[in-house]
Amino acid sequence: MKEKIMAKATELFLKLGFKSITMDDIAGEMCISKKTIYKYFCNKEVLIEESTEVMHKEVHQSIDAIVQQDFNAIQENFEIRKMFKEMFNAGDTSPMYQLKKHYPEIYNKLVDREVNECNTVFKQNIEKGIREGLYRSDIPQDTYVKFYYTLVFEINGNTISEKEAQQLELEALEYHIRAMATLAGIIELEKQLENHSII
């Protein structure tokens, strides 16, 4: 029951916002009493915190699954972006923006966890791109990793519209790859941007 409540809460939070969804809404959607929810979660903040932890795990399992498919480094970045777009396409308002505005402590915890994961994923992607000849070998990898995740978190935490956040993320990804790409990398980037525009 706890997992079912979290799954429904997560769906509603992403669709309608962390602030606007109440425990009554979740209970009504599930046809259970509010008392049942409080049996597992003493308040809404605890439910949000546990839901964001589950989301974090799901996101990184999806990223791992994409990495396992062995795309080239540039396509891998676009596949990860596509996964985020599909996962967070439910609502008008950016979930990260809402979380930062209404539940800053939970947001900061989530960002701390994300930074650790992103460091690993982004660095592995850069190393892969260098091996494949798509990224230049002379780039300061740790600096570029930090630049990119700072951009992405800045966009998500400060852009109200989810659609606008996704467009800015695409532009940040292009900016990130162009800064690192070899000539072969630029050709692959242009190909991915063309494919992406029809998704």
Automatic annotation (TrEMBL):
Keywords: DNA-binding. SUPFAM superfamilies: Homeodomain-like. It holds the Pfam family TetR_N. Residues 1-59 form the HTH tetR-type domain. InterPro entries: Homeodomain-like_sf, HTH-type_Tx_Regulator, HTH_TetR. Gene3D superfamilies: Tetracycline Repressor, domain 2. Residues 22-41 bind DNA. PANTHER family: ACREF/ENVCD OPERON REPRESSOR-RELATED, ACREF_ENVCD OPERON REPRESSOR-RELATED. This is TetR/AcrR family transcriptional regulator. The lineage of its organism: Bacteria, Pseudomonadati, Bacteroidota, Flavobacteriia, Flavobacteriales.
